[in-house]
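Whiteboard transcription, Tuesday session. T.W. wrote the C-alpha cells on the left side:
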C-alpha cells in the first residue's frame, strides 16, 4: 500500500462546489423581505426629517405629495427653495395613502397626516406613518 500525500481531484472538486453554493447563497439573499422594506422605510423617514429640519431653518412650510414612482416635496413660502423628489431604491416602490400632507414650521408640526406604503419587490411591506397629533414620523410593519 502506498502512502499518498494530498487530496484527490474528487475531494477538491467537492470542496469547491460546497464553497460556491455557500457564496451564492450569501450574495443572492443579503436580507429578508421584511428587512429590505424596513430599510427603505427608514430611509424615507430620515429624508422626511431632513426636510423638516430644512423647513424649520428657512421658516417655511412644505407639502408632501406622493406620485406614481416617487415622493414629491412641494416647498411653499420661499422662492429660493426648490421642489424635491425622493425615488425608491432598486427593488422597492411606494404607494400613496393620502392626498397631501403639509408641514408648518410656525407650529413645528404636520397639519394633517397619512402614511406611505413601502413595498419590497419580494413581498415585504412597511409603512411610514406621519401623525399630526403626535407631531412625529414613525415606521411600522402593521397597516395603520
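and on the right, the sequence the group agreed on:
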Amino acid at each position: 500500500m502506498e502512502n499518498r500525500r494530498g487530496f484527490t481531484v474528487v475531494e477538491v472538486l467537492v470542496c469547491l462546489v460546497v464553497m460556491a453554493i455557500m457564496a451564492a447563497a450569501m450574495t443572492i439573499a443579503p436580507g429578508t423581505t421584511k428587512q429590505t422594506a424596513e430599510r427603505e422605510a427608514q430611509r424615507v423617514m430620515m429624508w422626511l426629517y431632513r426636510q423638516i429640519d430644512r423647513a424649520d431653518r428657512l421658516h417655511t412650510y412644505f407639502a408632501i405629495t406622493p406620485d406614481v414612482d416617487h415622493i414629491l416635496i412641494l416647498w411653499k413660502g420661499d422662492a429660493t427653495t426648490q421642489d424635491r423628489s425622493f425615488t425608491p431604491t432598486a427593488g422597492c416602490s411606494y404607494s400613496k395613502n393620502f392626498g397631501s400632507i403639509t408641514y408648518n414650521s410656525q407650529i413645528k408640526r404636520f397639519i394633517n397626516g397619512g402614511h406611505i406604503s413601502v413595498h419590497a419587490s419580494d413581498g415585504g411591506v412597511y409603512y411610514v406613518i406621519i401623525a399630526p397629533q403626535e407631531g412625529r414620523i414613525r415606521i411600522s410593519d402593521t397597516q395603520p
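Someone added at the bottom: The helical segments are 9-28, 33-58.
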